[in-house]
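[Q] Does anyone have a clean structure-token version of this?
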Amino acid sequence: SVSNDVINYNVYRGGIKIASLGNVTVYNDTGINASASHCYAVEAQDSCAGNLSGLSPPHCSVAINTSVKGCEKSIYLSWNNYSGWSSIKKYEIYRIVNGGTEKLLDSVTASTTAFKDLLLNYHNKYCYRILAYSNPLVGEPVELSWSNRSCNQTFFVDTPQIITVTKTVTSVTNGTVVIRWKSINTAHLAF
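[A] Here you go.
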């Protein structure tokens, strides 16, 4: 609000008022499902007659999800576009391996909302976040918005092994051969 007469700001999430703050311009929304995108808007109230400004344009956060497909050594990332800025400049994809340091993995265009991280080691746990960059008008600052963190791990199926094969019966009269085998293990998922 450009008015010096603001006494209160109301914060809305998904069209529902969640906070009335007084004359402060920051709010931390806690206890929410961080793996979902949330849309926020704010309205100002003046001290004279309690007039309300009307809601700001909503800003919707980025939510990232990860998935694996079968036995691929890849993790698939997907996210929604950030909305609320005039336009998006780019998204940066950050990765953490086994709880280590978060590092920039790649930078993608504003129209990209999916990414495949290739040739991963099934022993490692991978966590990802997305950083959205606004594409501001001349003279305006670049704004940033972080997504939630989503983690996943690839896996493989052990190859079963046969240890013995035995021909147990041969029937000369009806042309039947019975073969038996024993497996030392059954297929299982390995992490």
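[Q] Thanks! Anything notable?
[A] The radius of gyration is 28 Å.
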